[in-house]
Design goal:
single chain, 38% strand, 4-stranded mixed β-sheet, 2,3-Dihydroxybiphenyl 1,2-Dioxygenase, domain 1, alpha/beta
Amino acid sequence: MIDHISIPVRELKAAARFYDALLKPLGMTRVREWPKSVGYGKSYAEFWLNERPQLKPASEDSGAHICLRAPDIAAVDAFHAAALAAGAKSDGAPGKRPHYSAHYYAAFVRDWDGNRIEVVTFLKDAA
C-alpha cells in the first residue's frame, strides 16, 4: 500500500551518514541522491531523508514514527546497536512486544531530529 516515506532532517549530510549505519543491517543502502534529499532502499528509494534546515527537533511525545521490517531478530538487534553507536537515543531496546502480538519483536530509536524509528520482525514461534 505505501510506496515510500520521507522524514525531515536538519543536516542532510550528517543524517545520511547516520542512516547509512542504521539501515545497513536491513539491507538498505543509498539508491538516490539529490541536492536536498537522499533515498534508501534495496532496489528503489523506499525511505527518504529531506533536508529542512529550519526544523526544530521533535519533542519526545511527537515526531514521525516509522516502522521498517527486518528479516530476523539478528537484524533488529544489529539495527539497534548500529543506531546507538551512531548517536541515536534508544526508545525501546530489542525484544518481544507481547502487548502488540506474541510474534512481535522490535526495537525503537530516536534520531537526532526526534523522529522515532522502529524495526520489527515477526517470530514464527512465539514460545
